[in-house]
Specification:
17 helices; about 5% strand; 3 strands; mainly alpha; globular
Length: about 400
């Protein structure tokens, strides 16, 4: 940790340590504040937002900006999505075909509406249409990564000198809104339609985390290492797949190919095949659920605590107006379009909870929203398959085509 030119640099080891503290603080606060539990607000969101506010107050009072090294956070993201791939079985993949298609179509249509909404609100402030696109699918569906990648294009070809600042501010505020909307949406739908998972789901191991009874049963150290070994095998295969795909001219995030590697190995390797550890392949085991919970919670806590909220102040007016409209649009589509099309089932309610994370924040935010809901109401394996497949793969491809389309035509 060192202070240079008004920036407090915090290296990876200490960043992970603080992230764990943030996660525990969020858990303690959620344990004391009833409405946070009632609305299924994820624990890392509670802690992460609190610490980001504290770091903002530090900047306001002293001029010192806290900046974290986040390489370890990105490793946790790869771990998490690999566990999701390992837990996906062929039966759920086949059953998820129609819901996946519905979610994909609704999300792509939403991307059109999102950009039109951003352009419309920007025009009210007499801002260029390109600013509306920045406040649309570039920063919200795309997140911080897409914003950083496209910012030079907006600067050079669209003349938006502060494109990066606008995009990052929208992505940051969108992440906050996405983290807070999933739980209330699911609670509303579950209560209004008296939804519940199938009875057998109550005893099933969840994709992320596990029930209190399963936690008391305990996990052996070899079970935990068996899950870690399976994850590492899938990551190695995912890394090789990533290189092959890149040689073909297509760039995908490493966590996407690791997700696919987990799906392939889980469903193609015979279950009766003996393994080095002498155990079955650890799909949908408590140890795998535990690692998924640790990886996702730590990733999200580190992501939220590292937000530099003071960067939002100078652009507050137009950005708040754009994000308010985008939030209303996302909630409306989740409740009145996506949920009915998916059949008004419990799985549909969980997917609707994740939809806000997909459309306003990021795929991990969507997964955290769904994890908080399923930890309260019960497992939904189908939701944890179709949401990451749509948001982590198809959406990036669609966005890469939609952004130039709107810039050319508006």
């Amino acid at each position: 940790m060192e202070l240079q030119n008004g920036i407090l640099h915090i290296q990876s080891f200490l960043a992970v340590t603080i992230g764990i503290i943030v996660l525990f603080v969020g858990k303690r606060i959620n344990g004391q504040v009833g409405f946070l539990r009632e609305f299924s607000i994820p624990e890392p969101v509670t802690g992460g937002l609190l610490f980001s506010v504290l770091f903002g107050l530090l900047y306001a009072s002293s001029g010192i900006a806290v900046q974290f090294e986040l390489q370890a956070r990105d490793v946790l993201l790869v771990y998490f999505f690999t566990t999701i791939g390992i837990n996906a079985n062929a039966r759920d993949l086949l059953a998820g075909g129609r819901p996946l298609l519905i979610l994909l179509v609704v999300t792509i249509a939403f991307m059109f509406a999102q950009n039109l909404t951003g352009i419309g609100v920007a025009s009210l402030f007499k801002l260029p249409a390109a600013v509306g696109v920045l406040g649309g699918s570039v920063s919200l569906i795309g997140g911080h990564g897409t914003t950083i990648a496209w910012a030079p294009y907006f600067i050079d070809s669209q003349g938006i000198a502060n494109a990066k600042e606008i995009g990052i501010a929208c992505a940051t505020l969108g992440l906050i809104l996405a983290s807070l909307m999933g739980g209330p949406i699911a609670r509303l739908l579950v209560n209004r339609y008296q939804l519940a998972p199938p009875p057998e789901a109550a005893a099933e191991v969840r994709d992320i985390g596990f029930t209190e009874a399963q936690g008391k049963a305990g996990i052996g150290h070899l079970d935990f290492l068996d899950a870690v070994l399976a994850i590492h095998i899938c990551i190695i295969v995912g890394y090789l797949l990533n290189g092959i795909i890149e040689d073909l001219g297509l760039r995908l995030p490493l966590f996407v190919t690791c997700l696919f590697a987990g799906i392939l190995i889980t469903n193609l390797v015979p279950k009766q095949l003996p393994t080095l550890t002498g155990t079955h392949w650890p799909a949908r085991t408590p140890s795998m659920a535990l690692i998924a919970d640790i990886a996702l919670g730590s990733f999200l806590a580190m992501s939220l605590m590292s937000m530099q909220l003071w960067t939002l102040i100078d652009l507050a007016g137009p950005i708040l107006a754009i994000l308010a409209a985008q939030f209303a649009l996302a909630v409306s589509v989740a409740l009145f379009v996506l949920f009915p099309l998916l059949g008004r089932s419990y799985d549909a309610a969980v997917v609707a909870a994740g939809f806000g994370g997909v459309t306003l924040g990021s795929t991990p935010t969507a997964m955290a929203n769904m994890a908080a809901v399923t930890q309260r109401f019960g497992a939904s394996h189908r939701a944890f398959i179709i949401v990451p497949l749509v948001s982590a793969f198809f959406i990036d491809l669609a966005n890469a085509m939609l952004i130039p389309f709107f810039l050319r035509n508006f």
